[in-house]
Amino acid sequence: SLLTSMSFEEMLGYTTKNRKDAVITVGIVDKAGASFTVYGENATVLPNHEYIYEIGSITKTFTTSLLCKAIHEGKVKLADSIDRYLELPPKAYYPSLKRLVTHTSGYKSHYLNKQMVRNFLRGEKNLFYGISTEALNKKIGQVSLEDKDYPFAYSNFGLSVVGSALAGLYGSDFTTVMNDFIKFDLKLPNTAISDGTGDLQGYWRWNPDDGFIPAGAIVSTINDMMKYLQLHMREELPYLSMSHEPLARVSTAKRYEELGIRIDAAGIGWMIDAKNNLIWHNGGTSNFNSYLAFDKEKQLGVIILSNLPPNYRISATIMG
Mean pLDDT, the chain, as a whole number? Predict the structure, then answer.
């Protein structure tokens, strides 16, 4: 209500007010090209340095972009059940890739396990740290779901299962498969699965074989993310366009709608705002939050990368 009447500049000013360590980078991509601005404390414009940000759950769109490549190559079908690509205990039903990428599989966001509790007690910022792919796959075998479209429920677990299936398909670990895809297909030189290093503070720790990497472990820079946005918006890699098609209907939650955030449908990993003609995703970790959206008709897109926690004042998603 008050938020929706604020301009972007006002939101930015409020969010960075007296916050000495704030570094928020905003990129705009349009027909003419791409440009970015870096903002610091009190919305001061800083030199155009490219910082390394955690992009959080925008990682999911990278995982599903790789899936689109595999579909395009005829290696996999959206209707395939995950037990085609993973060694799982025999069961009458396992969810399809389509249900996983649209968050309609019935999987919870995550399942509490001993490692998560240990992480919490040790003060580990990343609660998913150290949950191996093997542990994730074991959990898949333990969860029983019905063969139906469940109501949309955002699932880190479900998207991690997609990553695990892709690793199985390509016969390697997900970190290697994804880093190769980013380097050779997307051609983004400063984007990768995080190794915990960068020029900002508070990156999450990951082990290379962590099971939740496909849901949120990529780090990137503004130029790479603007290029990634262009790849999708301009469909420069033709197989990416299939990820933007609405596959499952969603009704936007009231609390989001009041903030102007809409999810009317889910594509292959992407959220679709039909009212505003936007394809978008956001991300948040302990110390970073991000937002990416584009309108294919207008050929206009925005990416916001912030080194502030998602619940700190106004998030990148609302500003975006």
Answer: 95
DSSP state of 304: E
Q: Side chain identity at 17, as an amino acid letter?
A: K
The H or E element that residue 282 is part of is strand 278-284
Supply the pLDDT for residue 1. 57
Which residues neighbour 66 within 8 Å (Cβ) at sequence distance 6 or greater? Answer: 166, 177, 178, 181
| Separation of first and last alpha carbons in the chain | 16
- Segment holding 120, helix H or strand E: helix 114-122
CA distance 158 to 161: 5
What are the beta bridge partners of residue 303? 27, 292
Helix axes of 222-233 and 59-72: crossing angle, nearest 10 degrees: 40
- The stretches of 57-204 forming alpha helices (DSSP H) are 59-72, 97-101, 114-122, 133-142, 156-170, 174-180
pLDDT in tens, 240-274: 999 999 999 998 777 677 777 899 999 999 999 99
